Amino acid sequence: MTTQPHSPARNLTDLLESIGARDSRLIHLQRTPARPGRHGEWPAWADPDLIAAYTRLGVDRPWTHQVAAAESIHAGRHTVLATGTGSGKSLAAWLPVLSEVLAAQRADTDARISAYGRRPTALYLSPTKALAADQSAALDRLITELESVQREAGVPGGSLRTVHAATCDGDTPLPERDWARAHADVILTNPDFLHFSLLPGHERWNRLLRSLRYVVVDECHAYRGILGAHVALVLRRLLRLVRRLRPHGPEPVVLCASATAAEPALTAARLIGADPEAITAIADDAAPTGEHTLALWQPALLDPWAAWENSVAALAQASDFPAAADPFLNRPGGVTASSVEGDPSSAQTPTSQAGPPRPPAPSPASRPAAPVGPDTDDPTEDPAARRSAVVEAAELLVDLLSVGARALVFVRSRRSAEIVAERARHTLGLSQPELADTVAAYRGGYLPEERRTLEQDLRRGRLRALATTNALELGIDVTGLDAVIIAGWPGTRVSLWQQAGRAGRAGGRGVAVLIASDNPLDAYLVHHPEDVFAAPEATVFDPANPYVLAPHLCAAASESPLREEDLPLFGLPDDSLLTELAARGALRRRPTGWFWNTNLPGRAQDLTSLRGDGPADVPVVEESTGAVVGTVSGSSADSTVHPGAVYIHQGRTYLVEELTEEAAVVSRKTAVGYRTRAREQSSVRIVAERERQQWADGVVWAFGSVEVTSQVVGYNKLALPGMEVVSQHPLSMPEHVLPTASVWWTVPVELTARAGLEAAELPGALHAAEHAMIGMLPLLATCDRWDIGGLSTALHPQTLTPTVFVHDAQAGGAGFAERGFRAGRAWLEATLAVVSECSCTAGCPSCVQSPKCGNNNEPLDKAGAIALLQLLLDAIPDDVAAA
User: Fold this and answer.
1) Which residue in 438, 477, 465 sits closest to 1, CA to CA?
2) Strands, E, within 221-330: which ranges?
3) Where are the annotated segments for Disordered (predicted)?
4) For residue 73, which of 129, 446, 678, 691 sits 20 to 30 Å off, Cα-Cα?
5) Do residues 221 and 268 lie in contact, with contact meaning Cβ atoms separated by under 8 Å?
6) What's the start-to-end Cα distance of the chain, in Å?
7) CATH second-level architecture of 48-286?
8) pLDDT band per the 50, 70, 90 thresholds, residue 595
């Protein structure tokens, strides 16, 4: 295999500084110096053959944090190891686990076949299949060396002590699962398999569970929000079942491996339902690190004339561009969409992140007969529109590949991964065609064999770059990566450092670039590096969410009857929720506990999914061949594979012909000059006000339960490459109702008038403030803007005043809105700062425009949003500020 030239990180830093000097794109460069490592000694109890195997793999001595964690686990204490990327957390887990498995096979132990069932077993849980596959490959290498050590020492083949490891997930064939049930000492899996297969079929996994000694929860910081609540309850069900099967045996020891995060002991305790005092936390990272450089990057300002002109040219060349589309709909300085048909100041019409469509209705006479360019003398023209972070990432990737670097590009969506890979391959095909095939996309929705091939090609060096979602963020150890490009703030500082840490692993130098997307939070952070480099956040999740807890109680009851002593494990103060489930017919109350009602159709485990409740994934099927191209989440099918949608898979473009309950039917297209984006409408109904703060001048700051009703009502076609809206198309998709949690605020109309806001300006001011607040909430909570939604209205039918809602996007809530409610002053101050400091005149994606607005970002009033935010801050009482 030909080896591409390798470029040291220092040269890449020089390259970034050179490129970034153009158009002032490089905002900040932070260098972290190299750090030496601190070694410890191998524990006395560690198996000598295992130590020899590690030595063969290059680990002569462990780091001190590895020793501390391994000692704690071996002593039977629940442990959380929270250290940096590439610090060797796996060794801390495998050293005690494998040593105990090997100790059970010593020649002086019971040699009867019945003793085989008493060998200790371990479960390894990974949040992603990619990480489990990576760990499996590393474990296989370790076991191979372990056996080689014994063979070279003269141990007969039949007497070798070894470890049987197996991966079990949704992709594992049934014969391999059968072998794992019968023979495996270590099972590598994920919480989904635990929930849907292992726990409901625990009778078939009896050998594994009765001997379960260790549970390793890798990358536990990834379990946040609704996923974190689900995984916490799955782990509690597992530990409860093992105690029930082995009432007099030792309790399984849990190791939670985490990136550097705040309050790791508390996070681990909440995951397994234990007291924080029972968790040993180890956070002193002793692994060496090479010099790391993080560049904060903001794409250059666009020339609005060039962007519009290129889009029209691209559309003219597209064979399938609709003839009825208006190429001047989005011309610079041209006609824009009104937020409300008729009077834009109508107090009855809400504007929301997923609100009703506002199709433009300009009269033909109002349009110029010929295209016109931007009016550079117009003082109201917005000079702040910037290039897409995805486009910038693709071009920067090409620059890095051209000097011999290997890189990962992290993006925020599946579609963006395809776009980055497609654009990079196209550019390389023109300049360096020998590199074009070394770039690929990696994302969810690929078939299992596609994912495995990509992972192997990356490890072997055939691929020099991958554009990926966060599927490759967690734990993947690929040596030789020089750079990481992060297109858009990844949601948390923990994720930022996890992604940046993919470069320069094993003590080598690494370079990472955070490219700001055109949204308020990204714009704020690249200009406030102190917030980027602040301490990592705590992980937020709520296992007590009744919408999450209730189906898990049903699942637990189906696995083994629930008893009074189980209530504290699930955080229940009494049996009222169980009584309610029994009243609804889900459970049966008996003298010995609560039982699942087996007369109901289906399994209790199928009442919920860990990745968010909703319909099953929808297969994407090619019309001409019947082949399954990929899958999309059932909950997002209406907005991503609706009829007329453009679907991209591995660089291939498809057009959705039909969406049914069974599948999305697509046809292959060779040239599509546009992309599509769904339009939604929504409304919010307040169900219950849980907390309320009465601020000055009649301002109310509240938190409670709401119902959000949403519906896809159409889609827009967006021209390439500028993504301007060129046509709008109606759809009629089903309505969806989401019961969730929300923070909201109301302000009297007379107060807004005193602040200088006229009635016609109020909808735009509220809408802009809502967008900016949604964009800034991830600064305070471990979420991103896709985990939350919002709605603003000049007259809400329940509050009867101007109202703005910011709600969780998961049933029952995920804790993010509540975090915003409790950090009101900090949230509002950061929001006001990003809007007021933005250099645009009327609002842009860096301050008040939203990439997921159902109203095409109309109406928006930046100046009005500033006035509203300042009004809110002035109304906060001193005691709230102190709290």
Assistant:
1) 438
2) 253-258, 279-282, 292-297
3) 330-386
4) 129
5) no
6) 62
7) 3-Layer(aba) Sandwich (3.40)
8) very high
